[in-house]
Amino acid sequence: MPLDYHRLMAMPTLDVRHEISERDTILYALGIGARELCYVYEDGLEAFPTIAAVVTYPGFFAKDPKYGLTWQRVLHGEQSVEIHRPFPSSGAFHASTKIDEIYDKGADKGAIMEVSRVIFEDGSAEPVATVRSRSFLRGDGGFGNMGQGQPPVPHAIPDARAPDISVRLPTHEDQALIYRLSGDYNPLHIDPEVARSAGFDRPILHGLCTYGVVGRALVQSVCEGRAARLKRMDVRFSSPVYPGEAVTTEVWHEGEGRAAFRARIESRDVTVINNGLLEYQ
User: Fold this and answer.
1) Which of 207, 212, 215, 276 is flagged as catalytic?
2) What's the rounded Cα separation, in Å, for the pair 33 and 188?
3) 184 catalytic, yes or no?
């Protein structure tokens, strides 16, 4: 049924305070498959920048009845992380998550909801990161376009020419078991019966885990192994990854500090992340 646009846009922000330790930072790195000492050893530990996607995460708030959403048909469609300064490997953080806009695609096509949060370290007025996401509300369209225009067009992939860089990284059979310890306990990623009920042969990898794996490929190749050079990473999720599959990230240079990318599972000939935009220094 159509959602209540004005009610949703007037909902209060979701305020979260989140403390992370060096152990949490190491566990996140292991969850996205990183094995470099700088991400897994407390002596000189660096936080891999995509950890911003999970710090101060407010949880799956669409399931709360007060939002009036068909939560069973909500799909995480797009993700963006913008890094303003190197993410600390430990500390206390706070952020307020807010609904920025909702776009109606029609009664039979659902809606798109944009959500954002700006992460601050406690005691600092300088933001660490801005996290944005878009979700497809497949059961809540038909309320009329009451907001501002149309959703932004996804970043184009120049696939008329071959990619400038191609990086193939493995995932591990137990990767979802490790990644879920960073806070996403959805049984879809661990319970075979739940996965089958959702139409999958077996449990699938978390989308944000795949996001981190692709982030590693971009840091290794475009950023020359220096994670602090990654400034922004936008993606559109297009298909799930199964733990144990190898993810091939294809990159096209677009000028100083910018690149387009996508990620594929070559063994199944399927694109799992599309319309990627990387900004780096």
Assistant:
1) 207
2) 20
3) yes
Concerning whether 204 is annotated as a catalytic residue, the answer is yes
Please report which helix (H) or strand (E) contains residue 113, including its range: strand 110-121
| pLDDT the model gives residue 53 | 98
Known catalytic residue at 189: yes
Structure tokens belonging to residue 154: 């996804």
Q: Is this structure's pTM higher than 0.85? A: yes
Specify whether 141 is catalytic: no
Tens digits of residue pLDDT in 126-137: 999 999 999 999
CA–CA gap between residue 209 and residue 48 (Å, rounded): 12
Asked if residue 77 lies in contact with residue 236, where contact means CB atoms within 8 angstroms, the answer is yes
CB contact at 8 A, 110 and 142: no
Catalytic choice (18, 155, 189, 206)? 189
Q: Note the helical H segments in 50-191.
A: 175-179
Q: 178, 204, 265, 273: which is the annotated catalytic residue?
A: 204
